[in-house]
C-alpha cells in the first residue's frame, strides 16, 4: 500500500480545507468525513487526511496500488493548489514513505 505525505505553509489552512470540502461535497465517488483538526477524504482506491498544524497544511495519502496513488497525488495537488488563498501560491510536494 503506497503512502505519501506533504506539508505546505499557508496563512489559512482551514480555509483551504473548507473550500475543498465545499467543492467535493456533491461528488458521489468519494466520502468526506470530519476529523480532528481536519478532513478525511475517502476515494474508491485510497484516502487522504488533511490536517492543520498552525499555518501548515498537512496531507497524508494512502492508496490501494501504485497507479491509483500517482493519480490521487496529482488530483490532491492540483485541487489544494487551486484552492489556496487568493494572495498566496501553495506549493505541494509529495514525499513517499
From TrEMBL:
Q: What is this protein called?
A: 2,4-dihydroxyhept-2-ene-1,7-dioic acid aldolase
| Entry-linked Pfam families | DUF2218
> From which domain of life does this come?
Bacteria
Amino acid at each position: 500500500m503506497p503512502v505519501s505525505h506533504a506539508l505546505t505553509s499557508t496563512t489559512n489552512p482551514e480555509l483551504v480545507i473548507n473550500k475543498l470540502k465545499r467543492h467535493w461535497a456533491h461528488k458521489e465517488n468519494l466520502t468526506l468525513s470530519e476529523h480532528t483538526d481536519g478532513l478525511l477524504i475517502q476515494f474508491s482506491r485510497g484516502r487522504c487526511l488533511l490536517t492543520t498544524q498552525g499555518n501548515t497544511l498537512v496531507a497524508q495519502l494512502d492508496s490501494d496500488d501504485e497507479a491509483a496513488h500517482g493519480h490521487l497525488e496529482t488530483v490532491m495537488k492540483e485541487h489544494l493548489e487551486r484552492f489556496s488563498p487568493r494572495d498566496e501560491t501553495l506549493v505541494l510536494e509529495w514525499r513517499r514513505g
